[in-house]
Specification:
By secondary structure, the chain is of the alpha+beta class. Helices cover 50% and strands 14% of the residues.
């Protein structure tokens, strides 16, 4: 308790008391994820980023699985069945370590597992979900193609019948976890419209070369999926869902995690800038004592706080079952853009050190360029919000 009349000391990472809006179970989830990150990710992630890739991805997946973080908001089949807010808090902590790690968890849980959980048969769920929840099997989600990103409805990957079997041909591009995945959820055009397929990656005709030369999300594996006459049994297809509704239902889940995650990257960059400003002396004073630096820090703190409040608000609405897709679009649009701005301002506070991997800022900043683009570009989310506001679709 604070004595009457005396304000509580300010936590610079939570100056408006967002902590008070969380329950004790939620704080416990957040703290457990934070500890895992401090033990298994933070000491190594700059090296993974510099060298490109995730050398210990299988061990890491099992550790994440043992804490219930893979498909953590799904019920049954070995999943932890936690709330949307718990999941969001976990995403924030993971992305405070690195967007690549949060991407691993998002793609596994919100894209690959969610697709199977929501649209799969009982057999598909039983075969894959318990192993994926434990981190023993890794999944990927193939929607984007070399020529079709924002407009996946025009995809060229095709699935055709051959007797009872399906034959898949096509290419997917920019697929997170692709080269290490045990199972790929692949969306393909059929005579009945777009359908989803559960593809074990050992199936003949399937390959997943790594995409090289990335300068963003380097602590993450990004791949092409090549499908050359991949023969699958009839029961590899999701039975009911047809059209873009299928993949979009999954993207909405992953985007929700990004609304939170982006604030984690921003918090890490802000914390680095604040600490640096207190220690770095120029003109005989810490740079934190200059008004121009304080303006930067105050602006960053305000955006960080509002972004976190927005994420929490959407999380509470998701748990209540009331959140609508355009709200999540607004969250992704706002929070990723603001997180990127926070990182850019934080980078200036660090001067030349701002471009060094010795500090997390430039890593977060370049990572967020991917986060800005995937799961719907800012332009796409602007159009979703625009349509919700005006009733006019302006996509084409
Ligand atoms: P395009 O769609 O070609 O867009 C190019 C530009 O044109 C953008 O600025 C876009 O907003 C703009 N534009 C397009 N249409 C319009 C319009 N109507 N009005 C105004 N502007 C428009 N995909 C997956 O399926 N699975 C994954 O696991 C996955 N992981 C990824 C990981 C990384 C690191 C990256 C970078 C991408 C990943 N993606 C993944 C792909 C990602 O979802 C796409 O890159 C994204 O959807 C954009 O598609 P595009 O790159 O083809 O850009």
């Amino acid at each position: 308790m604070t004595a009457p009349g005396r304000p509580a000391p300010v936590d610079p990472l939570d100056p408006i008391g967002i902590e008070d809006l969380l329950g004790s179970d939620e704080k416990a989830v957040r703290d457990a994820v934070r500890q895992l990150c401090a033990r298994l990710i933070d000491p190594y992630v700059a090296t993974w980023f510099e060298e490109g890739g995730l050398p210990s991805i299988r061990d890491l997946a099992k550790e994440l699985g043992s804490l219930g973080l893979l498909g953590m908001h799904l019920q049954g089949y070995g999943c932890a069945g936690m709330s949307a807010v718990d999941y969001g808090l976990a995403c924030l902590e993971l992305e405070a370590s690195d967007s690549g790690i949060r991407s691993l968890v998002s793609v596994q849980g919100s894209l690959a597992m969610f697709a199977i959980w929501k649209h799969g048969t009982k057999e598909q769920k039983q075969e894959w979900l318990p192993r994926m929840a434990a981190g023993e099997a890794i999944g990927c989600f193939g929607l984007t193609e070399p020529d079709h990103g924002s407009d996946p409805g025009a995809m060229r990957t095709r699935a055709r019948r051959d007797g009872d079997d399906w034959i898949l041909d096509g290419r997917k591009m920019w697929i997170t976890n692709g080269s290490v995945a045990d199972v790929a959820v692949v969306w393909a055009n059929t005579d009945e419209g777009i359908r989803g397929f559960v593809v074990p990656t050992g199936t003949p005709g399937f390959s997943a070369p790594v995409i090289k030369h990335k300068l963003s999300l380097r602590a993450s594996i990004t791949s092409e999926l090549v499908l050359d006459g991949v023969r699958l049994p009839a029961d590899a297809a999701f039975p009911e869902v047809r059209g873009l509704r299928g993949p979009l239902s999954c993207l909405n889940e992953a985007r929700y995690g990004i609304v939170w995650g982006a604030m984690g990257a921003a918090r890490s960059a802000f914390a680095a800038a604040l600490e640096y400003a207190g220690q770095r002396t120029q003109f005989g004073r810490p740079i934190a004592a200059f008004q121009l630096t304080q303006a930067k820090l105050a602006g960053m703190a305000a955006e960080l706080a509002t972004g976190q409040l927005l994420a929490l608000h959407l999380g509470r609405r998701k748990d209540a079952g009331t959140v609508r897709p355009h709200e999540i679009s607004m969250g992704k649009l706002n929070n990723v853009g603001k997180a990127l701005e926070i990182c850019r301002v934080a980078r200036t506070v660090l001067g030349a050190n701002g471009i060094s991997l010795e500090f997390p800022v430039i890593r977060h900043m370049t990572n967020l360029e991917s986060v800005l683009t995937y799961e719907g570009t800012p332009e796409m989310h602007t159009l979703v919000v625009g349509q919700a506001l005006t009733g006019h679709a302006a996509f084409r």
